[in-house]
Design brief:
Elements lengths: L1 H34 L12 H33 L3 H29 L8 H14 L1 H28 L1 H6 L3 H25 L2 H4 L13 H7 L29 E3 L8 E6 L4 H9 L3 E2 L3 E4 L2 H10 L22 E5 L1 H6 L14 E5 L4 H9 L6 E5 L9 E3 L2 E4 L1 H4 L7 E2 L3 H8 L2 E3 L16 E5 L2 E6 L2 E5 L5 E5 L12 H8 L11
Helix pairs in contact: 1-2, 1-3, 1-5, 2-3, 2-7, 3-5, 4-5, 10-13
């Protein structure tokens, strides 16, 4: 009698495990529909090898995720509670939760460029909070509908596999399916080893597309945004890894509606501020941006400041948006030194009066005289052209401002030269239909900031500065004190910063 009971228990467990294998197989097919959406968030491969890897990685990794989920959830339940009614019901619920989590991760990946997880907890919660706040009714409706539909599908699959488990076993599908799934998983890893050895970016940039895949590195993140020069990548220590495609000009198309009664604003750009000038600015109730970063190279700093573009080369022509401004809104008074750094200034008419008036003198003593004659309510920005840092290609510089519109803002984030033009244009009623690489400081955002200077990439968020050197290595620093922080590289922060770049259309070979 005891032997019969034991055999009965063994048969139950055996049937449940066979049911679980087929149930997992059908869930792999269902999950393939979801995981396929990850690849639509990135540029398509440009080579046959890239497409083959995409296909085998998609099939193999999806099967791995489903099998891993079965092992840690449904399989233990099958052993602990060998009751087909309980296991089938609990399995359907657990599978539904797993697929909902996968759909949510796909949504996060499409929205933010990285997967949900502990490293991206804050950004993921913020994204979810935005959806709940802005569209609570639709959020609840969509979530409930998708969850209910998936649960119904899972119950149907569970019941079908239980009733047809013997027929499925005799169908001859099992062994070919296992060979395909396991073969795809192994072959994708072998292809990745080969691609990593030869530096084939069309494959290695897919490292982080799927969840729980290869750990992200500087090279894979930058390759995804086509910032690696393929000709330099295989050579260790090679200079020039930063591809020019990543620092191409951002498109600008302005729509201007200048507010009535806008007060004039002067922007003074000087090489450096003397102790007397700092004292005059303080006495005249100027405020200072708490942490403002500027390139050390004066010409690069001028490009960032005057054009709001990442500086890849000397700009010989005026920025395109300058021709889109209403007459009398924007003007320059530039000296010889400024014109050497920004040659396009020579071609512009010297306007003595305009609403937004830039003054770029050769002699900083002109600023001292101007401050002594300044009216108490006159709006003015005083900017140090470049930083004097000796440690990095960017460093802190000073911006003083007497500008009531900016006084009202509580700026706690790092600011850059790239933010100045977008802020001034927003004040003048001009909006760019394309995103700037910088921010409008009158409406500060929380997205990580980006700058690329030479062969170094910088990302800023609050006081944190993430630096990627030309060898692809990360380092994390305090932007205010330049003290190294004992933290792991913040890959979501880097990805948020890189999302400021125009989305690549065709991948780099």
């Amino acid at each position: 009698m005891v032997i019969e009971q034991d055999l009965s228990l063994v048969n139950k467990i055996d049937r449940l495990l066979r049911w679980g294998h087929w149930y997992t197989f059908f869930n792999v097919l269902l999950a393939l529909l979801i995981t396929g959406s990850y690849f639509f968030a990135d540029p398509w491969p440009a080579s046959a090898a890239g497409w083959i890897y995409l296909l085998v990685n998609w099939i193999g990794h999806t099967a791995f995720l489903c099998f891993l989920y079965f092992i840690i959830t449904i399989f233990p339940i099958s052993l602990l509670f060998p009751s087909q009614k309980h296991v089938r019901g609990i399995g359907a619920v657990l599978s539904t939760l797993g697929l909902v989590a996968l759909i949510f991760d796909a949504y996060v990946y499409h929205s933010l460029g990285y997967h949900a997880g502990s490293a991206s907890y804050e950004q993921t919660v913020d994204l979810l909070r935005q959806q709940v706040i802005t569209n609570l009714r639709n959020f609840i409706l969509i979530t409930a509908t998708v969850g209910s539909l998936l649960l119904a599908i899972e119950l149907v699959i569970s019941n079908f596999c239980w009733k047809k488990v013997e027929r499925l076993k005799r169908s001859g599908v099992g062994h070919p399916a296992l060979t395909l799934l396991l073969g795809s998983f192994v072959f994708s890893h072998l292809m990745h080893i080969w691609a990593d050895a030869v530096g084939l970016q069309d494959i290695t940039r897919q490292d982080n597309t799927m969840p729980l895949s290869y750990p992200a590195t500087a090279r894979t993140v930058l390759a995804r945004y086509q910032l690696l020069d393929p000709s330099q990548l295989p050579r260790k220590g090679a200079e020039g890894w930063l591809a020019q495609a990543g620092v191409s000009e951002h498109p600008v198309a302005l729509q201007c509606q200048v507010p009535t009664g806008i007060k004039p604003l002067q922007i003074w750009v000087v090489p450096g501020l003397t102790a007397e000038q700092n004292q005059l600015l303080q006495l005249q109730s100027f405020k200072q941006l708490p942490q403002h970063m500027a390139p050390v190279d004066a010409q690069v700093a001028s490009v960032n400041l005057l054009t709001a573009q990442l500086a890849s080369q000397t700009k010989l022509a005026p920025p395109a948006w300058l021709q889109q401004l209403p007459a009398g809104l924007w003007g320059y008074q530039s000296g010889l030194l400024a014109e050497q750094r920004a040659p396009w200034l020579v071609s512009l008419p010297k306007q003595a009066q305009s609403t937004i008036q830039w003054v770029l003198p050769d002699d900083s003593s002109e600023l001292t005289n101007r401050l002594k004659l300044r009216a108490a309510d006159e709006q003015m920005l005083v900017i140090e052209n470049n930083s004097q840092s000796e440690q990095f290609a960017v460093g802190q510089s000073k911006i003083w401002y007497y500008w009531p519109a900016l006084h009202q803002q509580r700026i706690s984030q790092v600011s850059q030269h790239l933010d100045i033009v977008p802020t001034l244009l927003a004040y003048a009623g001009c909006q760019n239909t394309h995103p700037w690489v910088g921010d409008n400081l009158l409406q500060p955002v929380q997205q990580a900031k980006l700058n690329i200077v030479g062969h170094q990439l910088f990302s800023f968020r609050k006081d944190k500065m993430l630096v990627v050197n030309e060898d692809g290595q990360f380092s994390v620093w305090s932007a205010g004190t330049l003290v190294p922080l004992e933290q792991k590289p913040d890959l979501p922060m880097l990805t948020d910063a890189l999302n400021r770049l125009p989305k690549p259309v065709t991948p780099a070979n």
